[in-house]
Design goal:
heterodimer, A: Immunoglobulin-like, four-stranded antiparallel sheet, 18 strands, globular, B: Jelly Rolls, 19 strands
Chain lengths: ~350, ~270
Amino acid sequence: MASQKINFYLIFILTTTLSLLASVAPASNNRCEALDIFFDNLVHAIISSDLRKGIKVQLCSRTASSNRHLERERPEKAKKELEKLIEALENPSINDAHAQQLDLIRTEATFLISSIQGSDDYAKNRTISGRVAYFLHEQAAANSIVTLFFPESDVTRTTITDNNGYFYFDNLENAGIFLIYATDESGASGSGSSSLADRDSITLNLFLDYPGEGSISGIVSSNYDRESGVGFILSIVYPDTGRTAATLSGTQGNYSFDALPVEGTVIVTAFDSINGFAASMSDALTSWEPSIAIDLDIEAPEIVHTEIFNAGFSEGLDGWSTEGQALIIDRDVYFTNN
Amino acid sequence: MAVVLRKKSILNFYLFFIIMAGVTHASECPATDAALISNAGNERFFGSLSQSFIIPPGYETISGRLKFLSNEWPRWYGSEFNDTYLARFSAPGKVSILASGNVNSSEWVESSLGYNGETPEINYNLDVSGAVGKVATLYYEVRDVGDSSIASALAIDGVKVIRTHQYVSGEGGAFSRPGIISGLYGQAVKITFKNVNVVGTTISVKDNSPFGETKQLILAPQQEATFLFTRGGSEPMNWSFNVSTLSDAFLVDYKVESTWVDGMPNNPCY
C-alpha cells in the first residue's frame, strides 16, 4: 500500500515536472514573440532556422533584451545585445550545416545594429543644400534669403545664398517634412517642400519668379479623425517646367497659393505628414482662367498589408486598390527587358 | 567511330544539361507582369492604382518603371489638353513624387500599344529605409486635363523591393578632378561619396544610360552622401556615370555597392 502511495507521488511529481518543463520551454521560445516590428525579420530568421532549441532560446533572449533596451531608449545597450547575439553565432557547438541560416541571422542582426547606429548618426549629420536661380534666365540668385520650416516641430532656420546662388543648412536636428522658401530684394520668390527622413543629405533647387496672375485655393478634408490644430502640407509642381511651390494649410484645411505663374498644367498634392496619407489633383492655370479652386479629400487606406503584396502583379490586381480602368498587361510587350 | 559517337553523346548530354540549367534558372524568376491604368470612361476623369503596406525592417529601396501613353499626342500636343501622370510615395513624415509629367512635358514616339503615342520608360527609385515600421502608400494615377474625351494611360511595371543585404560592395576609389565610374553592375547601384577635403564641394553624378538621371549635392568637409540609381534588365548590365564638380577644390573618395558585382552568378530575372 505504502509503495503504491510512493509510486503515486512519484508519478505525480514526474507529471508535474514534465508539465512544468513543457510550459517553461515554450515560454523561453516565446521571448521572440510580441516584439516590435523592427525585429520581425531577425525573429523570423531565428524561428525558421533548424538550430537547436537551446540556441534559439538564447538568440531570442538577446533579441528580446535588445527590444527592451530600445523601448527604454537605450540604443547603446540595444546594439550591445545584438552584438552578443552575433557572437553567439560563432559558438563551435553550432553545426556548419547551418551556415546559410547563420548568415541570414547575422545579416539581419547587423542590419538592425546599423539601423540603430544610423538613427544616431543621421541626427548629427543631416544637411539640406541647394541652389536658387531665377527661372527666366537661370542666373544664380545671389544674396537671396532662404527659410527652412519644419511644421511638426515649428522650427525655422534661415540662411543667405552665396554668389553662385548656393545655400546650405547643416546640423539639422529635426527630421520630417519641411517647407523651404526663397526670396530676393526685388520680391521674386520661390518655394518647395521635401522630407528629411532617411538620408542625411538632401539637395533641392529653387526657382525665383516674379509675382504672376495665377492663384489656386481650396479646402483639404479627410475621411478619418486626425489631430486638430495641425495643417496639411500642399505642394504644386508644374510638369512642363519643373517649377514648384509649397504652403501649409490652415487648421481647417483651407489653403491658397497666390501670385503664381500662369503657365499651364499643375499637379497639386495635399499631404497629412502625421498619418502619411495624401491626395492629388491636376488642373491648368491659363490666361482665361488664372484662378482655380481645387478641393482635395484625403482618404485613409481601407487595407494595410504587412508588407508590399503582389508587387509584380503575378496575382492580377489582388492587393491593389483601383479607380477607373485598370488591367493586367504583358510586361514584355510594354517594357524592354534590358 | 564508336569513340566519336560516345564523345558526341557526352557533348549532347552537356548541352542538354546546360540548356536545362538555363531553363530552370530562368523559370526560378518570380512571375511578374505589369498593370495599365487609364482615365477613359471614369466619371471622375482619372484612373489610379494604389497599395498601403508597412515597411518591414531590411527594406531599403523601392524601384519601378512607368510608361505614359496617350491619344492626345500628336494632335493636341502643345495645347491645353494636357493629361498628367503621377507616381507618389507617402508615409508619416515623408512624401515623395516618384515621377510626374504631362503630355506637353514628355518625349513621344508613335505607339503600337493601343494609343497614338508612348513615352520612353520612366525609371524611379526611392530609399525607404527611414520609413521602416511605418504605413506607406504607393500611388499611381493618370488624369484628364482640359477635356474628358481623349484617353491617356499609365503602364506600371512590377514594383521591385531591394533589401539592404542584397547590396554587395564593389569597387572604390578617389577623384581629384571630374571622371567616370563604369563597369558591370546590377539593377541597383549605390555610390557613396565622402568629401575628404577641408573645404566643401559640389558633386554631380550623371547616369549615362539613355534617359539616365543626374543627381547632385553639396558635400561639407568629411561628409558622406549616397546616390542611388536603378534600371530594369538582367544582371549584370553596363553602367557608366560621369562624376563632375563646379568647385575648384575637389577631393572625394567613393565606394560602389550593387545588387550584382563581379564574381556573382548572372541573374536573368529582371
